[in-house]
């Protein structure tokens, strides 16, 4: 199979862009005493309180042992707490504490402002609109392929 240099170049560009954005996020969250992963664990719990460790692990695309370590640290710092699951004696449901909720809300607002600032003025409004449409289409196509591949692996 012959490689299409354009698709490989786009893949590499998107991957490099992801790492550039991730590095900026790392510095942003580090200034606030967080990591990218810890912030998103808290963000997921703010969006859907009461998740189990397995739920959170699935949403964060991390293995359970990694998420367990993150949760223990957040719990030690008083940002989250766990309650026994009502129907599964082996599982716990995870919630933000008041401090955790205040932290994720404040940092989320600051992060949105940070993103507005770092993306502002780099491209014209029309170019941003076109880029958003193109990336949305690409994302949908890749998600559809991934769903088909996932379904094929289940059988």
Indicate how many domains the architecture comprises. Answer: 2
Q: Helix proportion of residues, in percent? A: over 70%
- Rg, please? 19 Å
CATH superfamily of the largest domain: Winged helix-like DNA-binding domain superfamily/Winged helix DNA-binding domain
Structural classification: mainly alpha
The CATH architecture category of the largest domain equals Orthogonal Bundle
For the biggest sheet, the summary is: 3 strands, antiparallel
Please tell me the overall pLDDT.
92
Please state the overall shape, judged from the principal axes of the Cα atoms: globular
CATH topology of the largest domain: Arc Repressor Mutant, subunit A
Order of helices and strands: HHEHHEEHH
What's the N-to-C terminus distance?
27 Å
How many individual β-strands? 3
Q: Point out poorly predicted stretches.
A: none
In spatial order, strands of the major sheet run: 1-3-2
**How many DSSP helices?**
6
**Which percent range describes the beta-strand content?**
5-15%
Per CATH, the class of the largest domain reads Mainly Alpha
